[in-house]
Design a protein that fits this description.
Strand order of the largest sheet: 3-10-5-8
Number of domains: 3
Shape: globular
Structural class: alpha+beta
Radius of gyration: 28 Å
Largest sheet: 4 strands, antiparallel
Number of helices: 22
Strand content: 5-15%
Length: 570
């Protein structure tokens, strides 16, 4: 039990941080995670994995469930439909899926594989493989003779100061934690092989490499890191020559590797009738146009911007150069350069709606090996560790921001980043998500104008009610625009509510609610004219309607000028 105590405590801290600061979601199997996971319900509940004899255009009804799986999990491949995501993540989730299946069907109710029991099972599975990844990281760093407290520090920083927090909570069904486990275990066994030359280490090394590849095919790149793991040129060459001499060991290792890879090949065949396919139809790499700097430094999704501890860990590589460990330095830099070049050449280098630069999570171990070596050998290691600790609350806060729509999932920039940096109050939710509508496509039908509003520090509402002749023909209105001149103080909790309701029974047709700072156009902390657009459904006009404008003052003194509510028809 003592041997797993550090990892157990770290996972407990992760769970407590999520529970009390970030919040667990009811649904963790979503977006890309639906595709990685759907092999399990497809095989064991719906029995619709084998489709090679079905054509999607002829047997369209048989593909109804598949077409409704979220995250764009399935893509067209010729006349067939294929799950574009690899099968490896589902294989690791399988034991947890079966446990959930027992509880989900205990009352004989219908189960489609996405009920609450399955959601919780996948959440637990992700924590389990994060635990395993941290355990293998400890074993790996032990082979470098790293002090125990430094290993625990590195484990803690990976779990608490990186994107791991996000992808072990509400995006737990994504493949990245599973890849982190398999790659870290592969690196441990590789290091063990180069140190001991044991047959068993090589066989297991081949098995873990195969598993890593069928979790994410791009993980095959990790073999390029083997020179660094070997530590020096002579040890690397000796390990390769040993394989060439020991035919039985090499053949058995390749056989194990091939068996695991064949699982993916078989799944492709069962879906399409072809053994080798490219499942990401319409998506590809553009190696002539890599976004090398953006993937590392961009405010949109830059690795170093959203996980600064990785930047610090990357800098520690120069310690190897300073100590004339040239082979390790150049093999690390070479691998990192190739990895970044390839990852940044993907058509969507920012990898969709996600938090941070998630594709590097799989390879976190490669950053923390040189970082641990650096901390282990310098005299000021404790100082470096202390100044790294703020990265933990920054990571937790930004994960909270992402979950609560304060950070934008896909469209961050410098202004948005610093506008909401470490902000967690409710008024910041959706602030950087605002989209202005092109009013050239609309016709201004009418407006409501309030020239001046003075709000004091009392927590009282200011209410304006408009009826009859002051109300436009709402049956044609599809856009409402609110504009006003104001000092958009970031600490202001002033809210504006616009309601269109029926007077006789109070039925509300339209309800618009925004914090006033969401109207700003030119940034916070300055006085200017701002606006916000709202797409609405038309309301059948009658004499029984009223428009109510409410300014909820939550104790902030404010002066609003030229408040205007414009009504546009399409």
């Amino acid at each position: 039990m003592k041997s797993i105590l550090p990892e157990s405590i770290i996972i407990l801290i992760v769970i407590l941080c999520i529970r009390y600061f970030i919040g667990f979601g009811d649904v963790v199997i979503g977006a890309d995670g639906c595709g990685y996971y759907d092999y399990l319900p497809s095989c064991f509940i719906h029995h619709d994995l084998i489709r090679k004899d079905l054509k999607s255009d002829i047997d369209s009804l048989k593909f109804e469930r598949i077409n409704n799986v979220g995250g764009g999990a399935y893509s067209n491949y010729g006349s067939h439909i294929v799950n574009k995501y690899p099968v490896g993540t589902a294989l690791l989730q399988m034991p947890f899926f079966f446990i959930a299946r027992v509880f989900a069907t205990a009352d004989n109710s219908y189960s489609d594989g996405f009920q609450k029991q399955y959601q919780k099972a996948i959440q637990i599975a992700t924590f389990f493989y994060l635990f395993c990844g941290l355990l293998f990281l400890r074993k790996l760093l032990h082979l470098y003779d790293i002090k125990a407290y430094i290993i625990i520090f590195c484990q803690s920083m990976i779990a608490l100061a990186t994107s791991v927090m996000a992808y072990s909570s509400y995006d737990a069904s994504f493949s990245h934690i599973y890849s982190f486990f398999s790659i870290t275990a592969f690196l441990y066994l590789s290091r063990l092989y180069f140190k001991t030359n044991r047959n068993s280490s090589f066989i297991l090394m081949c098995a873990l490499l195969g598993l890593a590849i069928i979790i994410r095919n791009i993980n095959i790149l990790i073999v390029l890191f083997l020179p660094f793991i070997a530590r020096d040129y002579m040890n690397f060459i000796y390990g390769i020559r040993s394989l060439m001499k020991s035919y039985n060991k090499t053949i058995l290792g390749l056989f194990v590797f091939g068996v695991i890879i064949f699982i993916q090949i078989l799944v492709w065949y069962l879906q399409t009738g072809d053994f080798f396919i490219y499942s990401y139809q319409g998506e590809s790499f553009d190696f002539s146009n890599p976004h090398f700097l953006k993937i590392l430094f961009s405010y949109r999704k830059g690795l170093y911007v959203y996980t600064p501890i990785i930047f610090l860990a990357s800098l520690s590589v120069f310690f190897l150069l300073k100590n004339k460990r040239y082979f390790e330095f150049f093999s690390w830099v070479g691998f990192f350069s190739i990895l970044t070049y390839i990852l940044s050449s993907w058509w969507s280098w920012y990898y969709g709606c996600s938090y941070g630069q998630r594709v590097y999570i799989d390879y976190y171990a490669i950053f923390f090996i040189p970082f641990a070596i650096f901390l282990n050998e310098v005299k000021f290691s404790k100082f470096v560790m202390i100044i790294s600790l703020p990265f933990i609350p920054i990571s937790i806060i930004q994960t909270y921001q992402y979950k609560n729509y304060i950070l934008h999932m896909i469209d961050m920039d410098k202004d948005k980043f610093w506008t909401v940096f470490l902000r967690t109050h409710d008024q910041y939710r959706g602030l950087v998500w605002k989209n202005n509508v092109d009013t050239n496509n609309y016709m201004l039908a009418d407006d409501i104008y309030i020239p001046h509003i003075q709000l004091n520090e009392e927590k009282s509402d200011c209410v304006y009610i408009f009826k009859n002749e002051d109300i436009p023909d709402l049956s044609k209105i599809t856009l409402i625009q609110v504009e006003a001149e104001n000092d958009y103080n970031p600490s202001s909790e002033l809210e504006i509510i616009i309601m269109i309701n029926r007077i006789s029974d109070g039925h509300v047709f339209t309800y618009i609610h925004k914090y006033f700072i969401h109207l700003n156009q030119n940034g916070l902390k300055n006085y200017h004219k701002g606006k916000c657009d709202f797409i609405v459904d038309p309301v059948i006009s009658s004499d029984d309607l009223e428009i109510k404008v409410v300014l909820k003052n939550n104790g902030t003194q404010s002066q609003i000028n030229n408040l205007k509510i414009n009504f546009f028809a399409k």
